[in-house]
Every structure is written in C-alpha cells, then in structure tokens.
Amino acid sequence: MEVIDSSLIDWSRAQFALTAMYHWIFVPLTLGLGVVMAVMETIYYRTRDVFWRETAKFWMKLFAINFAMGIATGLILEFQFGTNWSNYSWFVGDIFGAPLAIEGMVAFFMESTFVAVMYFGWNKVSKRAHLTATWMTSLGATLSALWILVANAWMQYPVGMHFNPETVRNEMADFWTVALSPVAIMKFSHAVSSCWLLGTIFVVGVSCWYLIKGRHERFALSSIKVAAIIGLLATAIVSYTGHKSASQVAQHQPMKLAAAEGYYHGEHGAGLVAVGMLRPNASWDNLDEGDSGFHWKVEIPSLLSILATHDPQAFIPGIKDILAGGYELPDGGKALSAQQMMQRGKLAIDALRDFRLAMEAADQPAMTDARARLDSNFKYFGYGYLRSPSDLVPPVPLVFYAFRVMVIATAAFAFILLIFLMLGARVTRSRPLLWAGMATVPLVYLASQAGWVVSEVGRQPWAIQGILPNTAAVSKLDVSSVQITFFIFLTLFTLMLIAEICIMKKSIQKGPSV
Amino acid sequence: MKFRVIVHIWRFYMEGFASMTLGRTLWMIIIIKLIIMFGILKIVFFPRYLQGTHEEKSQAVSTQLTDRAH
C-alpha cells in the first residue's frame, strides 16, 4: 500500500486554492463590467447621446485593465492539473478535456475578434456593428465561463460518462448529459449572475468615489442608476438559482448541505440557522443527541426542509445520519452507511486491480468477471480510499461561516442597490451612504470568494464526488517543491494584483471624459 | 476583392495598435506574463508528471490508484 503524506495533499490543495481564488478576482469583474458597458452602449445606440458613449468607454477602459491583468491566469490552474493532480487529469481526461477545449476555442476566437472591434472600431465600423461587437465580447467571456463551470459541475455531479478499466479513464458517453446537467445549468446561472452583481457593485463603488470628490456628477449618478437596475436583477437571479442549487446539493451532496448548516443531527421539519456561532470543539463524534454544537443560534423553523425539498416536514439528514446511513433517500431507497460505502469502494478498487491483472494475462473470463464487479460498485469507487468515516466530513465551521457571509452580504447588496435606485440624485446629500457604497466593493469580493469556499471546501474530500478523493487524485511529488511553488505564486500574484490596482486607480483618478 | 478585405483588416488592426495609449502598457503586461508563464513556470515548475505512451500512462495511474487504497 502506498501512503500519501497528508501535507502533500494540503499543500497541493492550498496551491490550487490560491491560484483559483486569485483567478476569481478577475473573472467576475470581467463578466460584470461586460454587461454594464454593453447596456450603456445600447443606451447610446438608442439615444445617440454622446454622454452615454463616453460613459460606456470609461467602463470599457476599466474592463480592459481587468481583462489584461486576468488574462491567462487560469492557465496556471491547467498547468497544476498536469503536474500536481496527474492521476485526476488522467482519470477524467476525456470529460474534462472537451469543455476546456471548447472554452479555449471560444475564448480565443470570440474575444480576440470582438475585443479588437470594440476598442479599435469607434468611428470605423457602424454603430450597430460596434454595439454587436461589445455584446459579443461580453457574451464570449460568459461562454468561456460556461465551459469551465460545466467541468466544475461534473466534478460535483458526475454524469454522462462510463469508466473504462482498460484505459483507466472516464469516457464521455453523452456530451449533452454532461453539458446540460441540471447542476451545470444552475451553477452557470448562479455564478454568472453573481458576477453581474459584483460588476455592478464595483460600478456603484467607483461612482460613489466621484460623488464624494464632487466630480463627474452626471456620469456617476447615471452609472449608479444603470448598475443598480442590473444589480437588482442579478440579485433576484442569484437568489433564485442559489435556492435551486441548495435543493440540488440536498439531493446529490447532502454532506455539503449539512456542513453549510452546521447540522449534525437530522430531523423532520429541519430549521434553517439564519445566524449562529458554532462551538469550536464541536464535532460529529463528540455531540450527544440533542446537542446542536452551537453556542447560540437564530433558527427559522422548518425552512431548511422547505428550501431543500419544498416539504416542511421532510427529513433532512445531519452529518451523523449521513455517516450512519439507514434513512430514507428521496428516491425511496435506503442510504448506505459510510462503512458500507467504504466496503463497496474497496470492492471496486479490487475489481480494477483484478481486471488489470487479467488483462495482462489475456484472461477474458476473469476480465469479464472483474468488469462486472467494478461496474456494480463503481459508484462508490472513491470511498475505498477513505481511512475512516470522519474523512467524509468537510471543515464545518469554514463552510458554515462562508455560507452566511455569502447570503447575508448578498441581501445587504440588494438593500443598498435598492436605496441607491430609489434615492436617485438625492444620494449626493448623504455622505455616509456614499461611503457605504464604496465599502461594498471589498465586501462583494469577499462574498464572491465565500461562495466558492462553500462550493469547493464543502465537497471535500472529493476531487470528483464519490469517485475520486484528493488522496487518490494527487501526484506523488516532493512536498518541498509544492511549498516552494506555492510561495512563488503568492509573490507573483501579489505583484500582479498590486500592478492592477495601481493602473486601475490611476485610470479612475483620471476619470471619464464627460 | 479578397485582397482588399485582408488589407482593410490589416489596416484596422495596425491603426488600432498604433493609436493605443494605456493599451501599450496592458499589452506589455500580457506579454511579460505569458513569457513568465510559458517560458519559466511551465518549463521549470510544471513538468508533466505522467510520461510515456498511452499504455504506460494508464498503467502508471492504475498502479497508483490500486496501491493507494487502504
């Protein structure tokens, strides 16, 4: 048996998380500003008012800075797949490869063509052609995100494939099942609408700065109005898709839901904790029946059952129930315990080993037998790598608090955007409100990152849900080399971020030409 | 006709690049970043872990996946 050093997994995960979180600083602003500038140019196209052209141009400039700084940062993630997560890359190659290849093609052709027309085409192409290019730039960036999110959704809810033990790879059985899986659709809608929200909060924040400084008042108020309308629409979509995503998580990733709720003991008519403080030492293996693990909490009765299943009396399993099994599943079946799933996983791994040996010996009957055992247990393949049921429990406090940061901040953004929209030009009379508008900019980034923490930390220990845990996915590298690259990236990313902030600040200080 | 279209597109891009102000800085950053990524990071820090033919790679992964089970 090969033992993988847990610090190797931790450092490899830390490096990937660092890169992904840095990448996610740029992506949402690109998608969010893309929509804002396209709407502003649409207003210019319809009104022929030069003010709107110059307004759109200013936000396009900030879009360009962010786009340039963020370009290709995602490539490092792909490098890491090949080096740090080679087993994973091989295991999923065909499934992951197709969406990423499409993403590369779409990103390159759409963005490189239409970005050029958008920036170089003023007064050279017709207004309609220019507007089309602006919308296509925005759409191209969104489509890039689509394929990445499809790949991510597949890791959370693997469908549309079959495992081939001859190649040790998952092969795509149905492209559309992968691309249009309900989890992929909801993940895409939720992530993209959250990007719109981030972009609009950024626009409001920058506009508030101009109002505080007493500069570009018409520009700032008009930008706030457009951003507030788009932002409120985005908030509605974020809320709806967030609710639908929670229902999907309840069905396909119950452990993630339980962690996000700090929910150890299952019950009928489960309440939703609006706010609360977990006891730091609370854990699934030291809580008695009736001990929730909270110092204090404000709970809304039955809401978790309603949100997860639309039935106020439905049973929602807690962490202990998921590990113990035996409760009724939504499809009427009975949930297996963690131990039972671990045994089924071991059977699957043994079957893979037997299949490979039989293949070497060209023993067809043995291959057929091993294949049958593998297929019937493959759903639990990843459980065979777990040492104990506790490996299945993600870090509950991190997921619990990240979830609340995301949800409470989103509600606060909706409130602030509504206030700005209702007050209109009167907002200039309230300096505290203008400062609050500026303060929401770092908060929206925090909420955006928190969303990914819920999604990715909440599904630990899985690289692919149920099929491949991190311990099997990671490459056997020297820990020190992963540590060194971690700090190199941290330094590089920090320098890049400082450069972006400086250039962005300079452009904002210079201001629009209206 | 085709030639004129190509010339048109060529001029469009050349005039666009020539009239850039902030864009020059941004392009410089993009080029430096790509050089660092592909010229240094990819080569020095990110070698492909799996080497060899298709069969050798699948055998290597198979061995790792079966050996790591408890």
Explain this structure:
The complex is a heterodimer of chains A (514) and B (70). Chain A has 514 residues and is mainly α. Chain A folds into 3 domains: 6-253 and 394-509; 259-324, no CATH class; 338-385. Chain A is 70% helix and 6% strand. Chain A has helices at residues 6-47, 50-70, 73-83, 86-120, 127-156, 175-179, 182-213, 217-252, 254-261, 303-309, 319-324, 338-360, 364-377, 396-423, 431-457, 470-473, 479-510; strands spanning 161-164, 169-172, 267-268, 272-278, 294-300, 315-316, 462-464, 468-469. Chain A has a two-stranded antiparallel ribbon. In chain A, a hairpin with a 4-residue loop joins strand 1 (161-164) and strand 2. The longest helix of chain A is centred in the N-terminal third of the chain and has 42 residues, at 6-47. Chain A is globular, with a radius of gyration of 25 Å. The termini of chain A are far apart. The relative contact order of chain A is 0.13. Chain B has 70 residues and is mainly α. Chain B has one domain. Helices cover 79% and strands 0% of the residues of chain B. Chain B has helices at residues 2-18, 22-45, 54-67. Chain B is elongated. At the A-B interface, helix 2, helix 3, helix 4, helix 12 and helix 17 of A face helix 1, helix 2 and helix 3 of B.
